[in-house]
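Team,

Forwarding the record for the chain on the shared tracking sheet. I've put the sequence and predicted structure together so nobody has to dig through attachments.
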Amino acid sequence: MSLDKLIYMANQIGKFFASQGPDRAVAGTADHIKKFWDPRMRAAIFQHLEAGGAGLDPAVKVALQQLRAAEQNKRQELKV
């Protein structure tokens, strides 16, 4: 899947949750991506986020940052 498509999809998810307020929008976006995106899709969007996240809506960036941090923490816990 192309990066442009992933950006578009992530922003659409963010727009769907935006009416629930900023906190719920971030949480809902992160939860949706966690549940429904293939790990390869998440890895690609995280890589894009690390490169600056051009084209991602601000709330979507926050959601992805939180999701990436949670996934990194989970991997660290599994190593211990």
